[in-house]
Design goal:
heterodimer, A: mainly beta, seven-stranded mixed β-sheet, four-stranded antiparallel β-sheet, globular, B: Immunoglobulin-like
């Protein structure tokens, strides 16, 4: 069990550029979550996958944001036409699914995005 | 929608002492889960302790324990015998039971453990 990994760890881009982040969950975890954390705040939910199905999206996820999880394994989060307000830490988490109980979410190290 | 409030932005405690971090939440549901997560500087977030709302007994994990007051919607974290490695941001979080299980976090409390 290598934990949740995210790539890249840091990304600096210019306003208007597109960026894509990758998350590899713990193997056999079928739930995957994306959160955004801005400075001095707690993480905020963006979206959630169960296997390859995207089941919920936050209103924070504007039409410039898109997330995929092909084949129910790794996930990508793409931001098009980045804005300075997109600067944040993007966190990925995964959890197993056991019965009807909420399961512990295991977080990755995050991708810190800076938009100049 | 549920909200989570952490009213202590920063706290400091001496090594080996005990400290309590506060958290209140607001929800109209009766079944839910509460969590404390720890985020050390430049390191990833890890779960410290969790509490199911239907359980009256307060959760404990080694030096960490909670005081869960359901009627008051309060969920405080007590750290006993504080260690330098406990220095971190601590986030209180809430989730409903059910399929989504997304977490709603508070703004965090920065805990500094000093010698």
């Amino acid at each position: 069990d290598t934990g949740v990994s995210q790539d890249p760890r840091h990304k600096i881009t210019k306003r208007g550029q597109n960026v894509t982040f990758r998350c590899d969950p713990i193997s056999e975890h079928n739930r995957l979550y994306w959160y955004r954390q801005t400075l001095g705040q707690g993480p905020e939910f963006l979206t959630y996958f169960q296997n390859e199905a995207q089941l919920e999206k936050s209103r924070l996820l504007s039409d410039r944001f898109s997330a995929e999880r092909p084949k129910g394994s790794f996930s990508t989060l793409e931001i098009q036409r980045t804005e300075q307000g997109d600067s944040a830490m993007y966190l990925c988490a995964s959890s197993p699914r056991t019965g009807g109980l909420t399961d512990t979410q295991y977080f990755g190290p995050g991708t810190r995005l800076t938009v100049l | 929608a549920q909200t989570v409030t952490q009213s202590q932005p920063e706290m400091s405690v001496q090594e080996a002492e005990t400290v309590t971090l506060s958290c209140t939440y607001d929800t109209s549901e009766s079944n839910y889960y509460l969590f404390w997560y720890k985020q050390p500087p430049s390191r990833q977030m890890i779960l410290v302790i969790r509490q199911e709302a239907y359980k009256q007994q307060n959760a404990t994990e080694n030096r960490f324990s909670v005081n869960f007051q359901k009627a008051a919607k309060s969920f405080s974290l007590k750290i006993s015998d504080s260690q330098l490695g406990d220095t971190a941001m601590y986030f209180c979080a809430f989730s409903y039971t059910g399929t989504a299980s997304k977490l709603t976090f508070g703004t965090g409390t920065r805990l500094q453990v000093t010698l």
